[in-house]
Amino acid sequence: MRSIALAHPRTGEWARLALTTALALYGALCIARPEVYRLLDGVDLLIHEAGHVVFAPFGEFVGFLGGTLLQLLLPAAFLVSFLRRGEPYAATVVLWWIAQNLWNISVYMRDARSQALPLVGGGEHDWGYLLGRLGLLEHDQTLGGLVQLLGIFLFGVAILQGFHHARARPAAEVST
């Protein structure tokens, strides 16, 4: 059975262009209002919370950092995998996910002093603890802003590269 992507030679290209456009629009909404909780944020939160469990054996500091670490390391692992497999378009989608995670992390970092965000299960604020231990708590706004800017930069790269690679036909489509 032939896949839909092969039904018309450009169907795959159109689908990739549509996805990249959707990610660009969704990303623009996230950048404009990073504090608004969206559907994908729930997935990121589950990964974040799992990171605390995964990294807890490495001590208190790493346990607190573990949520953010897994939130970034998991999509980074997918990114590396797609690049190694020669799937640059898929890698741009995952790079977008990393950027989106950075926006969430920036909101959490900026909340370190005010601690106004509701926390899952109560407990201590990750970035309040981490920045406090590092003596950087008074810089939560600046550091959060830098993380947001990094996310915006990666978002731009992901979208530009996404449009570029969306137009290229994957090897699987070319060989058939």
Question: Can you describe what's shown?
Answer:
The chain has one domain (23-174). By secondary structure, it is mostly helical. The protein has eight helices and no strands. The mean pLDDT is 91. It has helices spanning 4-7, 11-32, 39-55, 60-84, 88-110, 126-133, 140-166, 171-174. 74% of the residues lie in helices and 0% in strands.
- Report, as a whole number of angstroms, the end-to-end distance: 13 Å
How much of the sequence lies in strands comes to under 5%
Low-confidence stretches: none
- Which shape, going by the Cα principal axes? elongated
How much helix, percentage-wise, in residues? over 70%
What is the residue-mean pLDDT, rounded to a whole number?
91
In total, the number of domains comes to 1
The description of the largest β-sheet is: none
